[in-house]
Design goal:
This protein is globular. The chain folds into two domains: 267 residues, TIM Barrel (Alpha-Beta Barrel); 66 residues, Sandwich (Immunoglobulin-like). α1 crosses α2. The protein starts with a strand and ends with a strand. The chain is of the alpha/beta class and 342 residues long. Helices cover 33% and strands 24% of the residues.
């Protein structure tokens, strides 16, 4: 599997340094999605230079010229988008442009024009979708119409399941809907992982971080995007609490959790995954099928262990050694955990 591990909301301008971007890379992240006041050509080019030194890619999501031209409905976006791409193309770290976050259906034709312009300029064209509870009408129709009209380079959405008063029960249904439309269209599917508490949402545990990643792998997602990396400025509202890096620039406990999750599990296991074909749920277990021989077995619960019994299993993948070790047909998965079996 060609896996992308991205971080949204990088260090702010005064913390945009080579050392800070190496800190991002050290967490097992390979793509930065800009924001956090990196909103002019000068600071964005500086961020691209820092990312290049750290071996990271950058998806530019905060160039104000793109935001303006995407809302000027009477203007052809292609000339300006072409110039924006040319501003960033000299950097090896530049991957592409995010054109709009969470467009509503009436904006799809405009996003489609932007996607065509970015693609013509030779860069990745990206737009992230609403979750179902923020759309009017059936979610399947919303995602399907976006996919048909816009044809982005990846199909991405966000939904943050860990609520202050419980769990968002619609989360897995959205995960399935977006993945199915991506499969039909032959597009990579990307999702966002909740890393922090904010209005109406609580701070996730290590098991809950792993659960979000592992359920995405069970569904065949190839893009994991962390929301957020740096803690948003309190002045932005929404009651954001500390993310992977707090507002003072200090790594939180969840930075270490994500680093270990990415480097000790996600990267090694993703290298073993290819040819995703289906997912099924049996009780508290999700089983993603990769090719004819590999099953990605995931605990569908983030709060309780799950007992698993499978037939005809010969070996389980050990990410520490990169080898498959003989295993039995019955085992226990910790909350949020998964196992790759062959």
């Amino acid at each position: 599997m060609t896996l992308t591990i991205a971080a949204f909301w990088p260090p702010p301008p005064h913390e945009t340094t080579a050392a800070r971007y190496r800190e991002i890379a050290d967490a097992g992240i390979d793509l930065v999605i800009t924001g956090n006041y990196l909103n002019d050509r000068v600071i964005l080019r500086h961020a691209l230079a820092c990312a290049e030194e750290a071996g990271l890619g950058v998806l530019v999501a905060s160039d104000p010229r793109v935001d303006v031209v995407m809302r000027e409905l009477d203007v052809d976006p292609a000339p300006l988008i072409g110039r924006v791409v040319e501003d960033y193309r000299p950097f090896r770290s530049f991957r592409g442009l995010s054109l709009m976050d969470e467009p509503h259906a009436g904006q799809f034709p405009r996003v489609a024009a932007g996607v065509a312009a970015v693609r013509a300029a030779g860069a990745l064209a990206y737009a992230n979708l609403f979750p179902s509870h923020a759309t009017d009408g059936p979610y399947d129709a919303y995602v399907g119409e976006f996919t048909r009209l816009v044809r982005p380079d990846v199909l991405s959405f966000d939904r943050y399941p860990f609520l202050a008063d419980g769990f968002d029960e619609g989360y897995l249904a959205d995960l399935a809907t977006v993945r199915e439309h991506a499969r039909r269209a032959g597009l990579p599917a990307w999702m966002y992982v909740q890393t922090l508490a904010y209005d109406g949402h609580r701070e996730p545990t290590a098991a809950e971080l792993a659960w979000q990643v592992n359920t995405a792998l069970a569904y065949g997602y190839t893009g994991i995007q962390y929301f957020t990396y740096w803690t948003p400025d309190p002045a932005r509202g929404e009651g954001f609490r500390s993310a992977l890096i707090d507002g003072a620039g200090v790594p939180t406990e969840r930075y270490g959790m994500v680093r270990d999750l990415n480097t000790r599990w996600l990267r090694p296991v993703a290298a073993e995954l290819s040819g995703w074909t289906s997912v099924e749920r049996t009780g508290d277990v999700l089983v993603g099928r990769y090719g004819e021989r590999r099953l990605f077995v995931c605990n569908a619960r983030h709060d309780e262990p799950a007992e698993v019994t499978l037939d005809g299993i010969g070996a389980a993948f050990d990410p520490a050694t990169g080898a498959y070790e003989p295993c039995g047909t019955t085992f226990t998965l910790a909350p949020g955990a998964a196992r790759l079996v062959r």
